[in-house]
Amino acid sequence: MRPFTMFEREREQATVSLHALLHETVRKLEGHTDLTVGDYTDEILRSGFPGIRELPSHARNLQLDSYIARIIEKDLPENGALIRRPAVLRAWLSSYAAATASYTTILDAATAGESEKPARQTVAQYRDHLTRIFVLDPVEAWMPTFSPLKRLGASPKHHLVDPALAARLVGIDRQGLLQGDGATPSPSTGSWLGALFESLVTQSVRVYADIMDAHIGHLRTKDGAHEIDLIVEKADRTCVAIEVKLADTATDRDVRHLHWLKDQIGDRLVDMIVITTGPYAYRRRDGVAVVPFALLGP
Question: Which strand (E) or helix (H) includes residue 63?
Answer without folding.
Answer: helix 57-70
